[in-house]
Structures are given as C-alpha cells and as structure tokens.
Amino acid sequence: MRPTPDRMRESLFSILAPRVQGAIFLDLYAGTGAVGIEALSRGAERAIFVEHNLAAVEVIRANLKSLRLEQQSTIWHGRAASVIPKIETADIAFLDPPYPLEHEYEKALLALADEPPGLVIAQHSSRFAIKESYGALKRTRVVKQGENTLSFFGVQLD
After folding, report:
1. What does each C-alpha distance from 75 to 106, 137, 149 come to in angstroms?
2. Which CATH number belongs to the domain containing residue 71 in this structure?
3. Is 133 domain-assigned?
4. Structural domain of residue 131, as residue ranges?
5. Banded model confidence at residue 99, pLDDT cuts 50, 70, 90
6. Is residue 77 packed enough to be buried (19+ CB in 10 Å), middle (13-18) or exposed (0-12)?
7. Is residue 68 domain-resident?
8. What is the reported pLDDT for 5?
9. What Å distances lie between residue 66 and 6, 19, 61, 123, CA to CA?
10. pLDDT of residue 122
11. Closest to 74 (Cα-Cα) out of 49, 42, 38
12. What percent of the chain has pLDDT over 90?
C-alpha cells in the first residue's frame, strides 16, 4: 500500500468541496480507507470501499468501526475492475492503484466508463502518461504535486 499523501488529499478535497456533500463516494484500491473516510468526514452520504488485499480490508473495517461509520459504508473485497459492474452507481469515484500496477488504471477506468459516475479522479505517478480518455470518460483537469498527479475525468458527450 502507498497512502495518498496528506497534502495531496487536502488538495483533492479542496477541489471536491462543492460536490462531496451528500455524494456517494467510491474509493477504489482503498488501502486503509483514508480517502473514503475523509469523504465521509466532509459530508458524503455513503462511501464504498473496494480493496483486493484482505489484510487491508480488515484495516478498513477496523477504521470504520472505530469512527462509527459502518452504517454509511460498504466494503467490497476483490479486484476493482471485476467489482465495479456489481456495485451501485457513485457520484464520485477515486482510484489509486499501486503505482507499479499501471495496467490497473485502464481496466478500472474502462469499467467505470460503462456507467460513469459524474466525476472520476485517478491519482497516479507524475511520470505515468495516463490517457486523455477511456470510453465515455474524458480527462478534464490535471493537478500535479511533485511525484503525484490527480487526473479528473468527466463524461464525454458526443
């Protein structure tokens, strides 16, 4: 696991401030669940966590329990691209696969493009050349901080 740096998470939620209130937030490759938990603390109605590593799933469960957020949360154990078609539609999706697994970006973004959320954010290495679009999702904004980049995607209208 590689946690989202605090400064990057603060930038993310400063940008999301007008949209997160009352939203359903999807935290893919959730790790400890810090990003989804932050969304809940900033007014998201629900958070859906997807994580493949079972030990990390248990950490997410423990974190949600200690913060009394279980009722506002759903945890899925599995690979993001296979779980995405099974879950409810989210308003905002955040994905942050481990940087060495660059192929996961395309799989997850294409799965999200089938029934796209209003906003998709991918955190990735600044050295990784993420594509401009994946199916119906088109990159609309880029925020770089050192080695980390946030790429924002919205629905591309033909």
Report:
1. 22, 25, 26
2. 3.40.50.150
3. yes
4. 6-155
5. confident
6. middle
7. yes
8. 63
9. 20, 26, 9, 27
10. 96
11. 49
12. 83
Among the listed residues 32, 128, 77, the one whose alpha carbon sits nearest the alpha carbon of residue 109: 128
**Would you state the structure tokens that stand for residue 77, as one six-digit string?**
């154990």
Give φ, ψ of 75 to 5 degrees: -115, 130
Q: What is the pLDDT of residue 100?
A: 79
Average pLDDT over residues 18-40: 96
| Residue 1 maps to a domain | no
13: left (phi over 0), alpha (psi -120 to 50) or beta: alpha
CA distance 155 to 69: 30
Q: What is the pTM of this model?
A: 0.93
Residue with tokens 């990003």: 35
Does residue 62 form part of some domain? yes
**Number of domains, the chain:** 1
